User: Which sequence fits this backbone?
């Protein structure tokens, strides 16, 4: 469904952070991505979601290039939710930016009605992260790039977030690229895992898949 | 070294029409810190962990209502004593890297901390240099401004400041947030080393898994209350030696364990 072919991206100092990287993500697939800090994981995520334009290579969703405007079929969920919301919008407006999530989903993500009238600064990082994840699940979205979305959460909140997300993703057969430093978490979520190192992707060394 | 007995803290909030109400943010918190020990305080955001740290150092703004008893080295820790001991006997490694002065090079900032703790100026400069070397910061980083440092390096500058202050009690507030695994392990190792020197370390974190290898005891906090204090060794296997459902649920929810909610936890809706 999501196909990236021979992506190349270099920063100003000429070091190639991505060097001929190709990747495919199927509908309903959970794909893990790990790698050192600065390996280019987030750059790859932002390229796939259309936040950055690749210097070479193509990205297609269902055979079509990413749209230039409108709702992006690949949504990037960054680590710091407070940087991806307008601090002057109330939570309701943020949540309903692309679609109006039904009350059941709001409940599944643990979003309390009392939050909707507040400003994002009045929510904790974990609370705001759940709002941002649900915001990104508009109809028409095919893939998610979850970039360290649970690293600031305590274990119970982390688990609740992934359980809620897993239900929606599996029902709608979305593709999910999970970027994380947490090997145990990737092992739980993703049957297939890749490692990004020195600009190249390789299959991760793993010890057998488990499911929760 | 430090004893907290029945600490209760209320902070004001303003209801419509600017009527002042009091919200209880810490309720009946008791714990004891021993020299040579890393004591972790673990909880979700909003559990009151950072408020506890600030209350111990007397950094909370007025108005506030605080009851309970704080004892440090068998002496009651009053506001005046907190002011006197801060930066000398008691050190805070703050959560935010904004705590560093953005216009001052690392070695200068660390030497200020040493100076405050009583080192003469020349000694303070030298002590700062040694402390930064100890935390593997090279000459270039010593003369760097905070924005030129990576998150892990800036965090180690903050640890170095606590180190040179010769403080007996070090409170580290979320020291591993936003760091990659190598940097995180280095910072946590630095804290463990401080405890081995006979200091008491209070490690405040949401990251139960990475606190366990360096902590001797763990206190779980939830909604301003201490749920349970357990030995770090109790967090193993199925966690069935843990006394409370909340502790067991937290342990089971880790991806290395069941990554699931236990039936008892679900029944009591602890999540």
Assistant:
């Amino acid at each position: 469904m999501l196909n990236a072919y021979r992506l190349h991206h270099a920063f100003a100092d000429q070091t190639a952070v991505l060097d001929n990287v190709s990747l495919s993500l199927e509908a309903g697939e959970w794909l893990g991505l790990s790698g050192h800090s600065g390996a280019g994981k987030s750059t790859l995520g932002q390229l796939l979601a259309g936040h950055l334009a690749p210097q070479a290579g193509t990205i297609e969703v269902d055979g079509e290039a990413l749209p230039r405007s409108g709702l992006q079929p690949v949504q990037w969920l960054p680590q710091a939710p407070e940087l991806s919301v307008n601090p002057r919008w109330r939570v309701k407006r943020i949540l309903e930016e692309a679609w109006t999530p039904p009350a059941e989903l709001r409940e599944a993500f643990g979003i309390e009605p009392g939050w909707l009238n507040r400003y994002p600064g009045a929510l904790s990082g974990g609370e705001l992260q759940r709002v941002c994840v649900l915001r990104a699940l508009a109809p028409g979205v095919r893939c998610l790039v979850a970039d360290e979305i649970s690293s600031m959460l305590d274990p119970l909140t982390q688990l609740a977030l992934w359980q809620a997300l897993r239900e929606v993703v599996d029902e709608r057969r979305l593709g999910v690229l999970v970027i994380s430093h947490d090997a145990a978490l990737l092992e739980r979520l993703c049957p297939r895992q890749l490692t990004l190192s020195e600009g190249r992707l390789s299959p991760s060394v793993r010890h057998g898949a488990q499911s929760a | 070294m430090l004893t907290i007995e029945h600490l209760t803290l209320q902070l004001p909030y303003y209801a419509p029409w600017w009527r002042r109400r009091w919200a209880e943010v810490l309720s009946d918190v008791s714990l004891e810190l021993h020299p040579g020990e890393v004591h972790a305080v673990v909880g979700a955001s909003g559990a009151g962990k950072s408020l506890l740290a600030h209350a111990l150092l007397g950094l909370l703004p007025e108005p506030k209502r605080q009851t309970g008893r704080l004892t440090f080295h068998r002496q009651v820790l009053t506001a005046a004593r907190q002011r006197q001991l801060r930066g000398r006997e008691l050190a805070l490694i703050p959560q935010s890297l904004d705590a560093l002065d953005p216009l001052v090079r690392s070695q200068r900032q660390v030497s200020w901390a040493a100076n405050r703790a009583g080192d003469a100026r020349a000694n303070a400069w030298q002590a700062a240099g040694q402390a930064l070397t100890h935390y593997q910061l090279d000459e270039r980083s010593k003369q760097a401004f905070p924005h030129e440092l990576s998150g892990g390096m800036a965090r180690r500058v903050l640890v170095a400041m606590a180190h040179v202050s010769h403080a007996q009690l070090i409170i580290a507030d979320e020291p591993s947030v936003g760091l990659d695994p190598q940097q995180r392990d280095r910072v946590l190792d630095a804290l463990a080393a401080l405890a081995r020197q006979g200091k008491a370390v209070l490690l405040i974190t949401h990251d139960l898994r990475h606190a366990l290898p360096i902590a001797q005891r763990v206190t779980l906090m939830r909604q301003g209350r201490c749920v349970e204090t357990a030995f770090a060794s109790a967090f193993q296997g199925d966690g069935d030696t843990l006394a409370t459902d909340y502790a067991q649920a937290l342990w089971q929810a880790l991806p290395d364990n069941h990554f699931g909610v236990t039936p008892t936890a679900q029944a009591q809706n602890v999540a």
Remarks:
- The interface with chain A takes residues 42-46, 177-178, 180-183, 206-209, 249-251, 253-256, 258-261, 270-271 of chain B (CB under 8 Å).
- Chain B has two domains: 1-88+170-190+200-263, 90-166.
- The CA atoms of residues 245 and 264 of chain B lie 7 Å apart.
